Amino acid sequence: METGKFRGFEVALHDPGIGLITFNQPDRLNGMTQGLKRDLVEILTEAQMDHAVRVIVITGFGKAFSAGDDISGRPLGGDGARALVPDIGRGHTDPIGTYSALRSISQRLNWTVRELDKLTIAAINGFAIQTGMSLALSCDFRIASEDARIGSGTLRFGLMPDEGGQYLLVQLLGVAKAIDFLMRNRIVSAKEALDLGLVNEVVPSDQLLDRALELARELAEGPQVAMRMLKRSIYNAAEMSFAGALDDIAAKTAVTDHHPDAREGIAAFREKRKARFNGA
């Protein structure tokens, strides 16, 4: 997984295998461009394939996690930032262009986050609006600072939560609450988000990154093979029949039961010590 500065974000790697992605355009409230999204998909794909990476944390500098798409038309860059993929233009010049751009770029980012086998944490430091909200909801864990504000707000412009926000809200809130949330353009505080179940916990702003990294270390020290397979089985179960979910986890257990981590876990239990996973 490459580290350094890219278009609109930077990447660092912390022990034990924590990839930290930070949006670094606070003057734009960390608004997203097509180039940023495509570069971020590339970084996440690298993380998926890199055995040194176990957990991904995504956060932002300034007052926003990400306040949505940057529609200023100004390119991102400067300060040594580099592009990972070439620019292919905006693509929203006609209906088919909009459809293609959404499917290939905006939706691709959230799909990539959700499809990662490795666990992801959104550390929501401020505004998470529209695309920013959907990216946060795509992550497996969400920790919000007390200053966080979360919502879609697309109807204010006569637009749609076209990057998958409606699906993610239905999963977390159910149909009735998702309709209320979207149709009324709700942008909720961190406490309201916690009450609704949109975030896992709320912490003081100056403790956000420390808490996210603490959780990341806890997850990174767990049995990675079993955790990644369990993550996929949980998401599969949300959309499968009971019979299908039983078969799915049985097939995965046939792998994990014979992995060295399982032998280590049993030995540690018998010897009354902390397990040392991931030796393989």
Folded structure, characterized:
- This protein is 44% helix and 17% strand.
- A hairpin with a 3-residue loop joins strand 2 and strand 3 (18-23).
- Helix 2 runs parallel beside helix 3 (131-138), helix 4 (165-173) crosses helix 5 and helix 8 packs antiparallel against helix 9 (242-256).
- It folds into 2 domains: 4-220, 2-enoyl-CoA Hydratase, Chain A, domain 1 (Alpha-Beta Complex), CATH 3.90.226; 224-270.
- By secondary structure, it is of the alpha/beta class.
- A 7-stranded mixed beta sheet has the order 1-2-3-4-6-8-11, sandwiched between helices.
User: DSSP helix count?
Assistant: 10
Q: How far is the first residue's CA from the last residue's CA?
A: 20 Å
How would you describe the shape?
globular
* Helix-strand makeup class: alpha/beta
**Biggest sheet record:** 7 strands, mixed
Widest sheet: strand ordering? 1-2-3-4-6-8-11
CATH class term of the largest domain: Alpha Beta
The ordered H/E elements are EEEHEEHEEHEEHHEHEHHHH
What is the domain total for the residues?
Answer: 2
* Mean pLDDT reading: 94
Q: CATH H level of the largest domain: which superfamily?
A: 2-enoyl-CoA Hydratase, Chain A, domain 1
CATH topology of the largest domain: 2-enoyl-CoA Hydratase, Chain A, domain 1
CA radius of gyration is 19 Å
- Specify the CATH architecture of the largest domain: Alpha-Beta Complex
State the share of residues found in helices, binned by percent. Answer: 40-55%
Strand content: 15-25%
